[in-house]
Design a protein that fits this description.
Blueprint (H helix, E strand, L loop, with lengths): L2 H10 L6 H13 L2 H17 E3 L6 E3 L14 E8 L2 H10 L4 E5 L14 H13 L4 E5 L4 H14 L7 E4 L15 H9 L2 E2 L1
Parallel strand pairs: 3-4, 3-5, 5-6
Antiparallel strand pairs: 1-2, 6-7
Helix pairs in contact: 1-2, 4-7
The structure holds zinc ion.
Length: 199
């Protein structure tokens, strides 16, 4: 197969990138200095080598530690567990800087048409572990979209066996309807965290 076509197709698999943009990237790279292409190739290769997934919160982190720096931080509050859709949401909430509990990355949302998936088995396992360590609150930090609501409903059923000792809260809706956490500014996220309500 033609090398330009092959790379364009590989790039077109990236989220938000179509075949035409894939081609644009290839021609950009052809015009770029060799060092830039090499650097990009090295960074992609290093992803598999330098980045690992935390077995507790399931976020990706750089380093050789067994668990990520949030999960291993004894100053963080064991009584709170925040559920987020993806790593980028977690990063946005950390930047807001007010939350000091633990996290779990769901890895997706459930759609109304029955598509999509979350890491349900891993979540149940994490919950059992956290309850033993004194968990009292689960914060649902999902996007204010219909998928987010639908996912939250399903998680409430997963949490049913723990309802006598765990309260469930959701982020206060300073967040605009349909807005994604990832793109919310720190100020908005701080307000949403402070105004979280039991649900
Ligand atoms: Zn972790």
């Amino acid at each position: 197969m033609d090398h330009i076509e092959e790379l364009a197709r590989a790039l077109a698999k990236l989220p938000g990138i179509g075949p035409r943009q894939g081609k644009r990237f290839v021609y950009y790279l052809l015009a770029a200095p060799g060092a830039e292409r090499l650097k990009l190739a090295e960074l992609i290769t290093a992803l598999g080598r330098e980045v690992r997934q935390c077995p507790e919160c399931l976020r990706f982190f750089t380093g050789r530690a067994l668990v990520c720096n949030y999960c291993s931080d004894s100053r963080r509050d064991d009584s709170q567990l925040m559920l987020v859709e993806k790593d980028q949401d977690l990063a946005a909430l950390e930047r807001a800087g007010t939350y000091k509990g633990h996290y779990f990355v769901l890895g997706g949302v459930l759609t109304l048409s029955g598509k999509g998936a979350i890491r349900e088995k891993e979540l149940v396992r994490a919950l059992e572990k956290k309850v033993a360590k004194g968990l009292t609150e689960v914060v649902l930090a999902l996007s204010a979209t219909s998928e987010g609501e639908h996912t939250a409903d399903h998680i409430r059923t997963i949490l049913l066996p723990y309802r006598d000792r765990i309260k469930i809260s959701t982020l206060g809706r300073g967040l605009a309807t349909g807005s994604e956490l990832e793109y919310s500014d720190a100020e908005t996220l701080r307000a949403a965290l402070t105004n979280r309500k039991e649900a």
